[in-house]
Amino acid sequence: MSTIPIAVYDACVLYKSQLRNILIRIAATEIVNAKWTVEIQNEWLNKLLANRPDLNKTRLNNTCAKMNTYVLDCLVTNYIQHIEKVILPDKDDRHVLAAAIQANANFIITFNLRDFPNGVLAPYGITAIHPDTFLNSIAIGSTHLFCGLIKQLREDYINPRVSAEKLLSSFEREGLRDTVATLTTMKHLL
């Protein structure tokens, strides 16, 4: 019996709604056991509100609450004890690694790979992975499941409807070039 890998989602991958939506949908499957902390949620939420004051804070707080309900056992707690033990290029990222250590994670999903050097993560059995690499590997390894999730995401857009091409274009704008290239070959499943 294989174990489901554990991945801590960094705040930067939860910031943009499309990517967050895909990652949360994947987290609800048995492909990955996704984790985050209240601190990680507050980080992306506060940054988003600072950059987009037009957004409704109550709605975003509801999004966080729904994430925590939709993905079972996602919140990591009791990770503070690890923060002082780790040294990273950006000390503000230590809480993410501390959460990954506490969760016995295999991966940290982040755009900021250089902030999580392999030499620091390796002793803990953790690897930092770009979200495009992560999602593309799922698209290739679990094609029908992944395409089904993307199709459902597309069909959830009712007014207005969103074509597969438009959805893939939005993924590309969010930095998912390899994933889009893979999905383009499977567009008939979307």
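the 2nd protein, sequnce then structure:
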Amino acid sequence: MGDYTKKNLREVEDAAVKGGLSDTQEARFAQGDLNAEKTGLAFQVVKPGKRHAFGHRHEHAEEIYVVLSGTGRMKLDDEIIEVGPLDAIRVAPQVIRAFESDSDGLELLAFGAHHGGDGEIVRDFWTD
């Protein structure tokens, strides 16, 4: 038997529930469930017509986001881009980022090298 771990991402605990954010999103951080030592992986859902509750950035961690389904927008610092299925977006650590879904919602993966304690939450990132 090889050295591997298999886990269905929908079975990973939804951190948005614990954080009181389940009205807008799901956030399933799978690193621990997969016994990953150096790689971070998150399955995220932005509910239809909603936005991430906050933006975030990192000091060291570059991330790649892949849209699995749905359409919407991604805010990267002061720029907003349209996103859709199989779009892959690389984001440098210091760039503040967050997603907004259209009426069909968004499902996406975020992954990159894991740097514990590296993230910074940016409240009130989306301004209209």
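The radius of gyration is 14 Å. The domain at 26-116 is CATH 2.60.120.10 (Jelly Rolls).
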